[in-house]
Amino acid sequence: MATLDSKIPEGPLKDKWTKHKDTINLVNPANKRLIDVIVVGTGLAGGSAAASLAEMGYNVKAFCYQDSPRRAHSIAAQGGINAAKNYQNDGDSVYRLFYDTVKGGDYRAREANVYRLAEVSANIIDQCVAQGVPFAREYGGLLDNRSFGGVLVSRTFYAKGQTGQQLLLGAYSALSRQIGKGKVQMFGRHEMLDLVVVEGKARGIIARDMITGEITRHSAHAVVIASGGYGNVFFLSTNAMGSNATAAWKIHKKGAYFANPCYTQIHPTCIPRSGDHQSKLTLMSESLRNDGRIWVPKKMEDVMAIREGKKKPTDLSEDERDYYLERRYPAFGNLVPRDVASRAAKERCDAGFGVNQTGEAVYLDFKSAIHRYGKEKALVEGISNPSEAQIIKLGEEVVEAKYGNLFQMYYKITDENPYKTPMKIYPAVHYTMGGIWVDYNLMTTVPGCYAAGEANFSDHGANRLGASALMQGLADGYFVLPYTIGDYLSHEIRTGKISTDLPEFVEAEKAVQDQIDRLMNIKGSKSVDHFHKRLGKVMWDKVGMARNEQGLKEAMEEIRQIREEFWSDVRIPGDANGLNPELEKAGRVADFLELGELFAKDALHRTESCGGHFREESVELDGPQKGEAKRDDVNFAYVAAWEWTGDPKDAKLHKEELEFKDIELKQRSYK
Question: Of which family is this protein a member (predicted)?
């Protein structure tokens, strides 16, 4: 077992990043013109990285499978982006953001990386404002903030419920400027299908033109993977249907260790599934938990009456409702972290209190907020003794201003008016904290290959706090990678242009073509989605919100069986020499079928519970934390980084021990 070198700088935590930037190697501006960088993925992490690297003078090739970078899944983020600016004067600071993030991640993240993230967070907001991102503002013109789960301050900057879209447009504008100047060569509708490693260094990629089917070689002095997470291994998730793990998985198979794959986030506020016909799930922003109260009926007879249509949720009085998060976690209430809120919803639904036909839904109710805001606005507008109707009307106007597009989206999907009746929500797969292992410089275990944003594992531990995904993506792309990549590239200025005729490129292209030919020649009887859905069901049932030893062992065997059937009976219509969405899906599902087994293997080996990884065998049995996740810091305070050896079941474990010098390691409590 190798000891992983995270390359964390020496010295006090608050000085590490500044000292590191001051002492790492740089590339002369004139020499940057001699260096090529490939960026795979053009969401917030990839788009900001490509724009920043090109602005600095590097020659950048950017790849995305969408027709435009504007369609990256970052656009779907709703609630906001964190930054420690303390605009609300409620005691926020860089240290408090750092502390909240480490605690929220259940003490399974690297201190140094998280502190750096907190440190650069304020710069991100300034950068985005300069780009014209229309953040919400208060009456006096200052940027507004709201709170998110797992914190006791308001530090989340937002643009209504469209924050991801607005931030992505900001990054896209910066990227477009560099495309116009010729510093970024943009390859839309191209999918990376392999990494090319020459003499131990990442030297390029093999990509497929998704329109023509042409396989092409692309060389560079460094490769950046910013292709997002692997949540679609569950089939049903809040991710875009095209979101996939192929780029990350291909570099894993070329030597990049995959870290903590079992750390997957189940988001508590998603629209419940309506049946087996669905292809994806829809997220309702965590920001709604600022004003929405989560509850189920106290009495089983009320649950049954609601399911049978004999009662409406609005018929139940306050004392007939169980606001279970407020009851169990009085200090944080509805704003507990996502993993805690998700498990609490599952517990209530498993106990039979789910309020829809499938028994998999709880209520998110805005009645109290509408009344509170309505009374406040009536006072502001000088309305004395407002009627109930006036209060509701004024309150709904305030709620619409804050969350209007989210309410509209819910109404269009469910045909229920959330202003008049509570939303129904249920947990769903959302974000992956695990990913490619990287050191402090964001370099993987393959020299010259970097991973940024959700594609890497580095900042969130076992549970991501809400509004931190956008923060990490932009931090990596704008403020971390542009510095750290120069340390490596400073040794490449005399390398010269890298030929794509090298044997390693020929071999990698052949491997890609061979896999495509193999898939096309199976000519089986089952669709790609047939296998993906089967994989997703195994993952959700046995590797989902709660896991146990028997279920995980069964999952590994079942996934292996599905994989064998896939490679003998999948049917891909059409041909490879042109547009073929089924072929694209088949390659991605082939990777998910390997990743899913490693995911279960990682969950099996980690016999503790932490964050989004809940082992039923590791639960607090008594005391004030009874029923909560029980960590094992003696045996599992490390990052589990897996090395590819040819088969997921034989993956080799490497450990990066986590040290906590600035935060006391203790059991989380949100009581």
Answer: Belongs to the FAD-dependent oxidoreductase 2 family. FRD/SDH subfamily.
